[in-house]
MerR family transcriptional regulator (Streptomyces diastatochromogenes), 250 residues
Amino acid sequence: MRIGELAARTDVSVRSLRYYEEQGLLTSSRSASGQRHYTEAEVERVRFIQRLYAAGLSSRTIAELLPCVDTPSEGNSDAALERMAQERNRLSEHINELVRTRAALDILMATARAHRESEALAQSV
Amino acid sequence: MRIGELAARTDVSVRSLRYYEEQGLLTSSRSASGQRHYTEAEVERVRFIQRLYAAGLSSRTIAELLPCVDTPSEGNSDAALERMAQERNRLSEHINELVRTRAALDILMATARAHRESEALAQSV
DNA sequence: CTAAAACCTGACATTGATGTCAGAGGCAAG
DNA sequence: CTTGCCTCTGACATCAATGTCAGGTTTTAG
């Protein structure tokens, strides 16, 4: 498929796809005239990339991990495994923090609701 | 306390504290000579702001929610409550996504480890 | 064949939070 | 009083991901 279709199917802009390639996160075969062509597999790959972005990884970090996805053997494995474990921890910590923040929001909302009700009560008297 | 101390205690740069004030997230009383002064309460507030930033809220969004924290009564409550619920949902979704990403990373790591072991095995033969 | 739509490269713009610098003033200790 | 550190404002720089535009080529549909 060409870049437009990949963009449509992944909800990622054409611009971004080209940027991913520039950053070494994505590869494409080129037609004789130079147009990028992708296979089905790239759809999943782009979604995975998006997911890592959403997890707060930079493209540099993603670029370090993806080779490990492509060829899960090789000498890279050792350092890459370390790297992944590290990012995994960062992610876990981040998740914990978000959960705590959500809890804080819940308390805030409960307080606000309580105030609203006490106001309604005051008004009804 | 002055801005330097607040910065030190919250691990937020002086520059950022001034930025928060500019964005309406933080207020300070000024001394006669124009220097900012803060109370103990601001320490917690800055930490909370950082927390919301980490949760992916923009300063604009934070600015919408904080009034509701300061005066949890008033007419703002109604719209603000809606806003908070909305952000709360966004946050929950985000957390879910991160958890799924972490799971994907775990699978990747397991695969890499398996490969490493099978290689070690091959070498030992 | 022709026009519209999609693609190419390369460049510049944008956004948000933050860094950094310059020039000036404030404040505490020696 | 002076020296050193902190603070002030205002401006410009940065970074990463993405948007946007221009000028040119390719592909597709009629």
Chain B touches chain A through 39 residues (CB under 8 Å). DSSP finds five helices and two strands in chain B. Chain B has two domains: 1-70, 80-125. The longest helix of chain B spans residues 76-124.
